[in-house]
Amino acid sequence: MRYALLVQGAPYSQQASHSALRFAMALPERGHRLDSVFFYHDGVYNAARLAAPPQDEPHLPDAWRELHERHGTELLVCIASALRRGLLDEREAARHGKEGHSVEPPFELTGLGQLIELGRRCDRLVTFPP
Amino acid sequence: MRYALLVQGAPYSQQASHSALRFAMALPERGHRLDSVFFYHDGVYNAARLAAPPQDEPHLPDAWRELHERHGTELLVCIASALRRGLLDEREAARHGKEGHSVEPPFELTGLGQLIELGRRCDRLVTFPP
Amino acid sequence: MAQSDPPGELLVILRHAPHGSSWLREGLDAALVAAAFGQSVTLLFQGEGVMALLEGQDSGALGQKGTSATLEMLGMYDIESLYVDAAALARFGLTRDDLLLAAEPLEAADTPAILAAHPQVLVF
Amino acid sequence: MAQSDPPGELLVILRHAPHGSSWLREGLDAALVAAAFGQSVTLLFQGEGVMALLEGQDSGALGQKGTSATLEMLGMYDIESLYVDAAALARFGLTRDDLLLAAEPLEAADTPAILAAHPQVLVF
Amino acid sequence: MILHILNRSPGGSLVYRDALASMGPDDRLLLIEDGVQGALPAQVRHFEPVLDRLFALREDLVSRGLEGRCDEAVQVVDVDGFVELTEEADKTVSWF
Amino acid sequence: MILHILNRSPGGSLVYRDALASMGPDDRLLLIEDGVQGALPAQVRHFEPVLDRLFALREDLVSRGLEGRCDEAVQVVDVDGFVELTEEADKTVSWF
Q: In 3D, which of F79, F58, F78, F77 has the Cα closest to residue F67?
């Protein structure tokens, strides 16, 4: 089946991101495809490219990136949630006259409409709230 | 009296930052001095220099900056909480081999010891949790 | 009235009060976007979420926008299927007269059917 | 035993369970740093925080470190004044035998005095 | 005397129980943010033991449309009153 | 059939009440994260109406030292079992 996940918890604050990642890793083994992960509310902080967790803790943004590389899973970040929280890719940084950026591919800033679209397109949408 | 605040909620997600700012603004009018604000847990996200909230919403990082400029209030960000969440100043970015930074003065990355020190030095420490 | 409508495609359950967090606004945003994309959307104000419907709300002390203006726009988005958790209203001592919108009180016994009827359910 | 010690300078109340959030770790970090700065620190495990004391914890499924290793280091930091909310223990059906550390059960009636006795109280 | 600050509604969170259990006979309780829901007449019974020392922050009541619906036992304070409560207390404890 | 997912402890949050009230007669409830505290024998009574359809995630029990303390009414599943529950359900609803 085609799955999508909605992640709404900040990494390193709540377990939501960890739970979502574990669930994501288990999907291929049961023959499913994880189409996309949509990050909303504080979940958008998972896309922070500068995250520097201690070496003996999981690196969550890297773990998401790996998921993308291994399975082609889209990493979609709600743009409205992200901008106010200081998560800007190069394009948005330029558009807002800010020097530097805090989000980079494979994370993509996108509209909330993508979440609605995922709900329609995928067989299952599982939410991981904080 | 000398006050310090401990802010632990993410801006734009919980009211904590707003409540703390309102309280901070009321202190001088009653003859108090706000020595420092210590940002811990998700409160560290208040220091995100790239925050770009909609024009008709309060700009929280700017509001903290203004508080600093007007009253000399220190804006102390727990470094351990900040690094894992992707909030790095230029020095930490260099130290971790990252290009770009996400925190800038007057926000200062500092150790948790500063919080303990504030509790000792100030007459009142008021916490604003998420 | 909501009860005679065919069930919508998306049920958004709003469980958070205005101002204390961004959940309510973010849940409403999801509902509005879904409606703009042509989905038929049902809202259920549950638990503390019933506070969203209270008459006489205002902006926050720092000028934070609330959500009541958004609620008044629901009709423009054709979101007309509105339920409010009857038990929560009672718990807060509120009646329909206290509400800024006409939402249909939903008894606990009727809640499972509403969830079952919608292909998609999001909780905020 | 804790009851005969003079009250400490800082009381840290730990109200969150391990793994579900970072609150417990962050509260313990604050306690350890205070102790390292020479303050005498008291810990109170309250509500869901009593889960922190449960014997037999492990790392998370992704290798997330828990907090039980930190708890075992408390003695090295001279943090020896440990209380556990007796009502919460009972609510979870736990007894002192389930705990990895000797913490003194604190009855609700005795809690206000502990808060009053410490010049500084932090809740996590 | 301690000023306890509560930002959660008794309609959703049980933290108010531990806050109350931790209060001494002279301590005060201030409801802020979502906590002001507890000032409604139908909710205020949760705070029965401290009704004579129960405060709520006006700004948070106003933004939620609750100012006129407050139980009369609750003492409503503006942000200056909040500061004043912290002056009068030896320390503050924030529950969440 | 809906799979309901709960990540809050009945010892701290009241959300479990609304989750239960929203469950149909065939719906299932999976406890994860802090929610697995509800699997303790002393807590499981909160889930009385759905005891025959109550699940808990093994990994979250293990990391908390709760695996051996679970009430026997609770069906313990690993993460593959979690995925399987989502397959068998028409949809999932996450409560927090």
A: F58
Inform me whether the pLDDT recorded for B89 exceeds 50.
yes
Q: How many CB atoms are located within 10 Å of the residue C90 CB?
A: 13
Do A and D touch, counting CB pairs below 8 Å (3 needed)?
yes
Neighbours of D59 (CB within 10 A): 15
CATH of the domain at F29: 3.40.1260.10
Q: What is the ipTM of this complex?
A: 0.97
- For residue C8, the model assigns a pLDDT of 84
Nearest Cβ partner for C120 among A81, A113, A119 = A119
Does E37 have pLDDT greater than 50?
A: yes
How many whole angstroms from its chain centre is CA B100? 20
Longest dimension (CA), chain D: 42
Q: What is the 3-state secondary structure (H, E, C) of chain F?
A: CEEEEECCCCCCECHHHHHHHCCCCCCEEEECHHHHHHHCCCCHHHHHHHHHHEEEEHHHHHHCCCHHHCCCCCEEECHHHHHHHHHHCCEEEEEC
Q: What is the mean pLDDT of chain D?
A: 94
In chain D, domain spans: 11-55+63-123
Query: Out of E33, E43, E64, whose CB is closest to C57?
Result: E64
Domain D11-55+63-123, what architecture? 3-Layer(aba) Sandwich (3.40)
Put simply, the chain F residues between 72 and 91 with a CB less than 8 A from any chain A CB are 79-80, 82-84, 86-87, 91
Q: Give the residue-averaged pLDDT of A95-110.
A: 98
Domain B2-128 falls under CATH 3.40.50.12780: no
